[in-house]
Amino acid sequence: MTKYVAIISAKGGVGKTAITINLTQALVGFGRQAIAVDADLTAPNVSVQLGMPQLHCTLHDVLNGKGTVQDCIYNHPSGIPVIGGRLAYELSDEVNYQKLVNLFSGLENMVEIVLIDAPPGMGNDARTVLQAVDSVIVITTPELPSVTDSRKTIKLARELGKEVIGVVLNEVRNEQYEMTKDNVEAFLDTKVIAVVPDDPAVRVAIYKNYPVVSTHPDSMASVAIKKLAAGLIGERYEAKAPEPDVKTVREKILEHLGLN
């Protein structure tokens, strides 16, 4: 039976799309059949981050009766299947959001897990996506305003009868002004299931149009996301120990000077 999980946030700019893409990649890496669906119909970014901005079939087309969900599945070179959205903002006004509730039935039994990059906020589009899923994962950064707004999102999900799997603290820098994991859990009355550091490798991966889990599999962000993915499917992930640096001081100096 296919499980539908919405990746949600109270506001944009917290890394929700990157988490969706990389969590999908991590699940595929564990041998699971997972797909990423961009349901942010106003500002879709999954295909942009993966270097596929021009798609001949999108979720918008499916909602407008111009194709099926199966027609719009793209396999990214990284190995993850994706259903993207159309970038033209004005097309979002043509969409019948209520069709989302029944749309995902086209993926039933085709994959194990559908990860849905949901619209941020609490508008009708976000509410409709929530109605179409089984459970949600909430993405927030550790700053107080972002965490405070997440309370509303969690409350809405629970009012709609959706399981809140937990909160992902993203872009964590361990600065004094940030809320701690324990404080966030107490404030939201919800378990923090992953702490993803602010990792430069993520920005490099987005520049390369690939998931960071693929380009930098041993980076701090990748390890955190793979642990999250493992937890979702009841497995355990242990990061590889770094290889010891056995270079001599002389070798390091020559290498720095470009002479080795």
Q: How are the secondary structure elements laid out?
A:
Layout lengths: L2 E6 L7 H14 L4 E5 L7 H4 L9 H5 L10 E2 L5 E3 L16 H4 L9 E5 L6 H8 L3 E6 L3 H16 L3 E10 L8 H8 L3 E6 L2 H8 L4 H4 L4 H13 L16 H8 L4
Parallel strand pairs: 1-5, 1-6, 2-4, 2-5, 6-7, 7-8
Antiparallel strand pairs: 3-4
Name given to the CATH homologous superfamily: P-loop containing nucleotide triphosphate hydrolases
Number of strands: 8
Strand order of the largest sheet: 3-4-2-5-1-6-7-8
The number of distinct structural domains comes to: 1
Strand content: 15-25%
> What is the terminal separation in angstroms?
56 Å
Please give the CATH class.
Alpha Beta
The biggest beta sheet is recorded as: 8 strands, mixed
Mean pLDDT across all amino acids: 89
User: How would the global form be characterised?
Assistant: globular
CATH architecture: 3-Layer(aba) Sandwich
Q: Which structural class best describes the helix and strand composition?
A: alpha/beta
CATH topology: Rossmann fold
Please describe what this structure looks like.
- The chain is 35% helix and 17% strand.
- With 260 residues, it is an alpha/beta fold.
- The chain has a single domain, classed as Rossmann fold.
- An 8-stranded mixed sheet has the order 3-4-2-5-1-6-7-8, sandwiched between helices.
- The longest helix has 16 residues, at 144-159.
- The mean pLDDT is 89.
